Every structure is written in structure tokens, then in C-alpha cells.
Amino acid sequence: LEARYGGTAPDLAPEETYPFRFFKNPQGEAALLKEHPVESSSSGEGEPEDFSMHESTQLAFHEGFSWDDSSAAARGRWLEKAKMSSLTPASANALAELGEDSKPVQPCRDMEQWLEIVNPAAADSSCTMRMMEQEDSVEV
């Protein structure tokens, strides 16, 4: 992310932004290291994350799809799938305006909801783990 947006990369002039620059590894440089740096860990112990959100998603999540609104047939190919996607509030509003039904389209607002959308099996196991932790803390 460029410095002007709060990142550490140098700011680029508009003519330097295309073609887009992509990172070698979407998980970051630390993921390539055998020993993780201390600053990458919230516990300060230098251990890797327990859970990679990147690995939780399928290819379709990363690729996305085009909201082709050129005809009713084109819209029909993606509209229902889009309603089940991880949407920002602005995207949910735009999608609701395109839909024919009166059911509101809900944006994704937290990590639990996001995980439920992109990987329900992981969300179920995450929920199970939290319940087990709560039971353990009550027994003590």
C-alpha cells in the first residue's frame, strides 16, 4: 500500500500505476520464511498464524465475477450467486437495486459472517472450538 494511504510503499504518479503491480505471494514475505519474525505475531512469540484466511477461500472467491447487466439473461447468470457473496455495504445496495425481489441483500460486516460465506465448514469448526473453550472455562 502506498504511503499516502497508510502503507510503506512509495507513492506513485498516476502514469506509474498501470500495469498494476502484484505481490509474489498473497500471504506476504513472512509466509515464505521458516522462522516467523516476532513482529508478525500478535503474541510476540514469533509463531505463525493458526489460521490463514487466504487458504480458507476457493478460487472463485479470488476471481470474482462480472455483474453483466446487459440483458435479463446475462443478469440471471450471476444475480443469485452475487446475493450469496461477501459484499460491501455499497455492493449490497447496488445489488438490491438490480434485484427483482423485495428481499434485502445483506452486506458482510464481520469475520464470522465472512467465514460462513466463503467456507461454511471452517465456520462450523470455528464455532465448535469456541463452544468447547467456553465449556472448559465454565468447568474450571
Q: Major β-sheet, in short?
A: none
What is the distance, rounded to the nearest whole angstrom, between the alpha carbons of the first and last residues? 45 Å
Mean pLDDT: 76
Beta-strand share of residues: under 5%
Radius of gyration using CA atoms only = 20 Å
Q: Given the structure, what is the number of helices?
A: 7
In helices, the fraction of residues equals 40-55%
Q: Unreliable segments (pLDDT under 50, ≥5 consecutive)? A: 36-48
Q: What is the number of E strands? A: 0
Order of helices and strands: HHHHHHH
> Could you say which structural class the secondary elements and strand pairing correspond to?
mainly alpha
* Shape assignment: flat
Explained architecture:
The structure is a single chain. With 140 residues, the protein is mainly alpha-helical. It contains seven helices and no strands. α6 crosses α7 (120-139). It is flat and about 45 Å long. The chain starts with 52 loop residues before the first helix and ends with a helix. The model is unreliable at 36-48 (pLDDT under 50).
Can you tag this structure with a few keywords?
mainly alpha, flat, 140 residues, 0% strand, single chain
Can you summarize this structure?
The protein is an all-alpha fold and 140 residues long.
